[in-house]
Amino acid sequence: MASTSQRGGKTPGRGQRPMSSGAARLVDDAVASLIAIFGKAESIDRQSDRIDRWADQGIEALQLGNAFVAEQMLLNIRNATATQRHAAVDIKTTAYDAAGGAGRHGEGVLM
């Protein structure tokens, strides 16, 4: 006689309980938070590439005696680091909110 219990998919195995709608919502929220954090981390990475490029251009401008261009590169770097700080705060806020959401539902706080 063939077993009627299903393994894999969405059907829980023997001894497992199905995921509650609250738990499923927490998982969905956590995944959404991770996607948002990933996007912000990519933004920081892009800004880092720009900062490196502007630093190289600033060094070259100084070597050529072009203080105006060097100053512009430094101002670009200042703006990019401010953008990075904002992205870092967004990441922290998103992670904190996601961890707090788990704590509010009795699933434990990550931080």
Total strand segments? 0
Low-confidence stretches: 107-111
Q: Given the C-alpha coordinates, what overall shape results?
A: rod-shaped
Portion in beta strands:
under 5%
- The helix/strand class is mainly alpha
Number of domains: 1
The whole-number mean of residue pLDDT values reads: 84
Rg from alpha-carbon coordinates: 24 Å
Q: Roughly how many Å apart are the termini? A: 50 Å
Q: Residue share in helices?
A: over 70%
- Count of runs of 4 or more consecutive helical residues: 2
Biggest β-sheet, characterized?
none
The helix/strand order is HH
Brief characterization of the structure:
The protein has 111 residues and is mainly alpha-helical.
Keywords:
2 helices; 73% helix; rod-shaped; 0% strand; mainly alpha; 111 residues
Q: Secondary-structure map with pairings?
A:
Layout: H1 21-63, H2 67-104
Report on this structure.
73% of the residues lie in helices and 0% in strands. The chain has helices at 21-63, 67-104.
